[in-house]
Design a protein that fits this description.
The complex is a heterodimer.
Chain A: H1 2-21, H2 24-33, E1 40-56, E2 63-78, E3 83-89, H3 93-105, H4 111-139
Antiparallel strand pairs in A: 1-2, 2-3
Chain B: H1 9-24, H2 34-40, H3 42-52, E1 54-55, H4 57-66, H5 71-82, E2 87-90, E3 100-105, H6 156-161, H7 189-197, H8 201-212, E4 220-236, E5 241-257, E6 270-277, H9 281-294, H10 311-317, H11 320-329, H12 335-362
Antiparallel strand pairs in B: 3-4, 4-5, 5-6
Helix pairs in contact in B: 2-4, 3-4, 3-5, 4-5, 7-9, 8-9
The chains are: A alpha+beta, B alpha+beta.
């Protein structure tokens, strides 16, 4: 039971994190191609705010406040009572709303379809751009060679 | 006598209308878009995010456009906007060890696991103007290698294994926040780091340079410099667990400093730390040097009376918005103040002249 709960939590963490980080345009395009949006009632209207990001001294030590980032959040409930939360980076209320709707749908029978049509393509798109950067970084890795000195 | 004056509304209105026109420049030239600033002046955007203390590239690009490229003015706009935002909370401390590194170099270990990755650097360019950029043209794709998928370990881990570098003990102490409570001295290292990371790049650079030139010399090596993206996690009360709420680009610098030991510490290497929003390499190295200089007391070093060792001096003057606010206010109307000064100088002058006349009459 606890294991199942953990698995469900890990899955939700994953899609919510993806929705937070994904570029707005890509999300909105896929959402626009998805079926008609479900009707819902706001629990918390979209609001823009700041989150103070913390660093750690020496990368591992005591925490300190580094600076803020913009975040938009909202909560809503679908007609069947499923609650969805949106927490996304930046200041787009539209993106937060779509993220909350997807979060809610992912907890319903529509999950398989939402995963196939939205979550999976987004995840793949972000992986592709991450890998492309990593590949460019790899090409700038220094290969050292030692010169042999001809003294004897 | 001073008579209250009103007026200037029309002049101010017209001045701002002209400002808008000058900001736009010649209408024969295409207007800059926010996206162009964000993508093509990204290091300016990074600097404004770091010193404005708000990570939001789009918003910062707008501020730079509005400020006509005056970065301190743009930082001012961002700081002002920041104060209007409700605070949703504090993130969990970022795991820079999990960073996807675009760049990662070490000046201390040639064969560091993960390698020396140069990334998109100005280093080793010849600093000659490239007139090709004056003409439009396609940029060829950058070459690609075998992408690294595993995290890149921190260099200091290797020295820690040998126990010859000062430890950074894990702590869950809640750090002070200078955006919430005014700074008090002694500030302590977490508050110092918050102040330095949003401090003026030129000021922090100058302070760091002074330590290299011999004021509180602490001979630093760049143990590691890394630039890349890290995910930001925060606990969400309504969920009961933490989720990623986004990702930010950071530059992290760890210096390794010679330390011969003190009354309380054995001979070992010590550390300075820099962590800055965006690709902000110069600032990050400078921050690490100043951080190290300010740690003299906890490490039992001597106070040499150097400016970079003086916490109150450094932290009170690092903020360019505080500095420019106070500096620039002196250009605003001070008619009353000046009127009284004028009266005073006239009176002193009159008295001095009278004394001379009396003296001459007496002779």
């Amino acid at each position: 039971m606890a294991d199942q709960q953990n698995i469900a939590q890990a899955a939700r963490r994953e899609w919510m994190g993806l929705l937070a980080r994904t570029p707005e345009e890509a999300l909105m395009t896929l959402w626009g191609e998805f079926e008609t949006p479900p009707s819902f009632v706001w629990l918390r209207n979209p609001e823009v705010g700041g989150v103070m990001v913390r660093g750690q001294t020496g990368g591992t030590g005591a925490p300190f406040n580094l600076g803020e980032m913009t975040v938009t959040r909202c909560s809503l409930v679908l007609q069947d009572g499923t609650v969805g939360h949106g927490y996304v980076q930046g200041r787009s209320k539209g993106k937060a709303e779509v993220a909350a709707l997807i979060d809610a749908l992912m907890q319903t029978e529509a999950a398989t379809e939402v995963r196939a049509q939205i979550i999976a393509p987004l995840s793949q798109k972000m992986q592709v751009s991450k890998t492309a950067r990593a590949a460019k970084a790899a090409a700038t890795k220094v290969e050292f060679f030692t010169m042999v000195r001809g003294e004897d | 006598m001073y008579v209250a004056v009103k007026g200037g509304e029309k002049a101010i209105e017209n001045a701002h209308a002209w400002l808008a026109e000058e900001r736009r420049g010649s209408t024969d030239i295409a207007e800059l878009s926010i996206a162009q600033i964000r993508e093509q002046l990204s290091l300016a955007v990074n600097r404004v995010m770091a010193e404005g203390s708000l990570y939001d590239p789009n918003l910062v690009a707008l501020a730079i456009k509005q400020a006509r490229g005056d970065l301190i003015e743009a930082i001012f706009l961002i700081r002002a906007y920041r104060t209007t935002l409700p605070r949703f909370g504090y993130s969990n401390p970022v795991e820079t060890g999990q960073m996807t590194c675009d760049r990662r170099i070490s000046a201390t270990f040639k064969d560091a696991p993960g390698g020396q990755v140069l990334g998109p650097t100005f280093d080793y360019t010849h600093r000659l103007l490239d007139f090709k950029l004056a003409a439009e043209g396609e940029v060829p794709d950058a070459p690609e290698g075998q992408p690294r998928t595993e995290p890149t370990p921190h260099i200091t881990e290797f020295l820690q294994g040998e126990d010859i570098i000062q430890d950074e003990p894990v702590s869950d102490a809640i750090p002070g926040d200078l955006t919430r409570e005014p700074m008090e001295f002694p500030a302590g290292r977490p508050l110092r780091l918050q102040s330095l990371t949003r401090g003026d790049e030129g000021f922090v650079l100058g302070m760091a340079y002074s330590t290299q030139r011999g004021y509180a010399r602490n001979h630093a090596f760049v143990g590691e410099l890394r630039i890349g993206k890290v995910a930001i996690e925060m606990d969400i009360p309504e969920l009961g667990f933490a989720i990623e709420i986004g990702e930010v680009e950071l530059t992290e610098c760890e210096t390794v400093n010679q330390f011969t030991g003190s009354k309380t510490e054995p001979p070992q290497f010590t550390r300075g730390y820099g962590l800055v929003f965006g690709q902000s390499e110069r600032k990050s190295i400078a921050m690490a040097l100043v951080d190290r200089a300010l740690r003299w007391k906890e490490l039992g070093e001597d106070n040499l009376g150097a400016p970079a060792q003086d916490e109150e001096f450094v932290l009170s003057h690092a903020d360019n918005i505080q500095a420019t606010g106070f500096l620039e206010h002196i250009k605003l109307p001070h008619y009353v103040d000046f009127q009284s000064e004028l009266e005073l100088v006239r009176k002193l002058r009159r008295e001095a002249e009278e004394r001379i006349t009396q003296k001459e009459a007496a002779e």
